[in-house]
Amino acid sequence: MTITIQFSKSLSSHQNPLIVPFYAHDVGAQCAAADFLSDKALSVISSIVSLQDENGFLGKDGQSLELYFAADVPEGARRVILFGLGEKRDMSAIAAENLGGKLCAILNGLSSQSVVVAGEGVEHPAHFVLGAALRSYRFERYKTMDQEKAQATQLKSLEFCAYDAEITQEEYQDLVPVLSGVELARDLVNEAPNALYPESYAALIAEELKPLGVDIEILDEKKMRKMGMGAIMAVGQGSERQPRMVVMRWKGKGVAKDAKPIALVGKGVTFDTGGISIKPSAGMDEMKMDMGGSAAVVGTMKTLALREAPAYVVGIVGLAENMPSANAYRPGDIVTSYAGKTIEVLNTDAEGRLVLADALAYVQEKYDPDTIIDLATLTGAMMVALGNEYCGTFANDDALWDDMSSAAKNADEKIWRMPLDDAWSKEMLSTVADLRNIGQSRFAGACTAAAFLQHFVDKGRKWAHMDIAGTAWVKKDKPTVPKFGTGFGVRTLNQLVKQAYDIAKD
Ligand code: BES
Ligand code: MG
Ligand code: ZN
User: Fold this and answer.
1) What's the gap in Å between 436 CA and the centre of ligand 3?
2) Long-range contacts of range 144-151, CB-CB < 8 Å, 24 or more positions apart?
């Protein structure tokens, strides 16, 4: 859930608190909304700002100053919060989003249910508002105690006021599909693993996306077994909750009949105990986020459908729960994947690549995609390499990497190119089967995992693999991303599709 956003042309509502943005200026701070406020309000506020020394409010990026007035002096508001936007020349769309997010974080700590922003003069206002909305996300489905008390102090709505609020509102409406897709992805990642398991997840995807015009196909365990998807079936066999594969097809208006789709492939391990190669118990609860790749795919499909993207995109997610049990797959097992390649399982905790192997093979055979992007919380090694900041991204095509890099920059998601190499592809060959599911040392774990996946990508097909182990789930807030499920990937994928289709058409 996120806050309600409203737009209006004047500050008539007399609500508290009133947010007044300032730009940092050579000589202190300059009110962004100077020609929007009454002379009286402006002079009262400016006189206080002019009293600030170098330790005070200077309009710096994210700075704030809370003021109270004995009488209703500034536009009927007794409570005014000055908010710093930083230097005007630094105000890009992404900077505006981050500022909106920082404002929201400040307001979250202030116990006011609704605020009014004197938004005149703020650059990229729709992005500023989007940033606030993104940051306001909360997962509170399971909160039943003390709800009233908590809600009384939580920010519920933000009203953005400016002369051309209507234009800002229109621009904001164009961004709402992105917000909705990110919100869905976050909800899926944050959801408890007893509620979100392959069967319930598949049903939820259909419920969310079918009404938006996305074509849905669900493969159940009987179908998958019959089709020979021995890899994903092995991962799920230790669980009472049987695997699913869900295909989501979006073909927007104006797409050529013979167009090849972009395929988005997501790892959806709804809970990863590690299986027989079981993980340590401390922190295992976090492995409910092991379906973060699938969440990014589902969230992106929602965004594309909501904005009626003129694009052809096939999303596919492999859903399985990795559990130890009397029926679980074992280290030493050899399984036959959908592609026909046999895999020696040496560690049951390296399960994501098995799930992806079958999803990758199926989507290529059935849809002959022009480009494939897969997303997966695949390796702890990626977290060791790039932490929670950058998503390591492997690409077998330089032009595809360039497209992804610019898409990610535009989306304010950080990605970093990682290497594919024949040496790692060879390292993943087994002595008793075609492939082994772990490398031969503990080094370069993210790269050997990518090399394993590459064995399931047809020669000549453009492919990228995003290991989102460190970015799908964070334990510290970022300006537009509150902690836990982040929805990472939705914005980059949406932008990538936009670049490939919308922009090409313009
Ligand atoms: N889901 C994990 C990777 C992971 C770890 C994601 C931490 C997010 C945070 C994956 O299934 C896994 O267990 N990978 C193993 C692979 C190893 C056995 C080769 C790992 O990274 O330890
Ligand atoms: Mg694992
Ligand atoms: Zn996993």
Assistant:
1) 16
2) 151/113
Asked if 388 and 474 touch (Cβ cutoff 8 Å), the reply is yes
Displacement of CA 148 from its chain's centroid (Å): 30
As averages over each run of 10 residues, the pLDDT of the chain (506 residues) reads: 94 82 92 93 93 93 94 81 96 98 94 92 98 97 81 86 97 98 99 99 99 98 98 99 99 95 99 98 98 99 98 99 98 99 99 99 98 99 98 98 98 99 98 98 98 98 99 98 98 98 70
Q: Number of C-alpha atoms within 13 angstroms, CB side, residue 225?
A: 9
Does ligand 1 have an atom closer than 6 angstroms to the CB of 467? no
Q: Contact 35/71 with Cβ under 8 angstroms?
A: no
Q: Is the CB of 379 under 6 A from ligand 1?
A: yes
DSSP assignment of 69-94: -SSSTTTT-SEEEEEEEEEGGG--HH
Q: Is 381 in the pocket of ligand 1 (CB under 6 A)?
A: yes
Give whole-number Cα distances, 170 to 8, 127, 164, 197, 441, in Å: 12, 12, 10, 38, 54
Distance CA 347, CA 277 (A): 6
**Choices 3.30.230.20, 3.90.1570.10, 3.40.630.10, 3.10.20.340: CATH for 200-479:** 3.40.630.10
Distance of CA 431 to the CA centre of its chain: 39
Question: What's the gap in Å between 49 CA and the centre of ligand 2?
Answer: 55
* Residue 283 falls in which region: left (phi positive, over 0), alpha (psi -120 to 50) or beta: left
Q: Where are the domains of the chain?
A: 4-177, 200-479
CA distance 506 to 504: 6
By 3-state DSSP, what share of the chain in percent is helix, strand and coil, each rounded to 5?
40, 20, 40
Of 290, 323, 377, 379, the one to substitute when testing ligand 1's pocket (max ligand atoms within 8 A of C-beta) is 379
Report the CATH fold assignment for 4-177: Leucine Aminopeptidase, subunit E; domain 1 (3.40.220)
